[in-house]
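Appendix B, example 12.
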Amino acid sequence: MRKAKLSEPQITQYLARIRSPRNQSLSINYLRQLHLNHLLNIPFENLDIGMRQEILLDPKRLFDKIVLRRRGGFCYELNGLFYQLLQSLGFDVQMIAARVYDKTGSLGPALDHMALLVHLNHNAYLCDVGFGDSFSSPKIMYPGEIQMDLNRYFRIDKDADGHYTLSMSEDSVLFETKYLFSKKEYQLVEFIDMCQYHQSSPKSHFTKGNVITQALPTGRVTLSDTKLVRHHLGERSEQNILNSDEFCVLLNQHFGIVWERNLS
């Protein structure tokens, strides 16, 4: 199966977008650097849905939006484009699908989320730059092993049917399951229907309001329609938002994005 790759100029532009060097050594350290720098420089956001701009899973459109126009996106966009970068650099990478657990513990539908698996030095690593506030470094596929990530802990478990779960903990004792996935490989076009669902269905949490979040070297900043939340060195602060004008100011101030409000 032919896989479309980024051109050399596009690779250079993408690496500049995430402030990463070009490294000929396809090591786990380089993969970690790319993964973290992606999270530090490209936000998770669903602004196009509120602006009634259709999200199309076309590689050229994704590159234009995320790299050239310096926007963010949600999982299908971010992981879909990161997949192209990794395989263009020479990594052995595949798209996988996940079903996300909601706050009640119920599972979402099939292809609810896209993540990536990178095969390197006889190991497989779970990569995900499109799940908002999640792990910063690729997680090795060692079922049952607790892996520390900054000040949190992650664990991947495997069941008898060959399915895996990703869980997160604040204390390495009590874990919350985030999503269920398998190693089955998918193509970008197979996520089109769920991408359309998440931007149009009233049942999708992405249609209920704007959210934009980005990792910082010292924490995270998250903006919604009603508040700005900042985490800095373990301390949390909130700022209520009074109106859409203030939202636009904060969006530009913290994420460098000018919100093209749809007034129709």
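The chain has seven helices and 13 strands. Residues 75-89 form the longest helix (15 residues).
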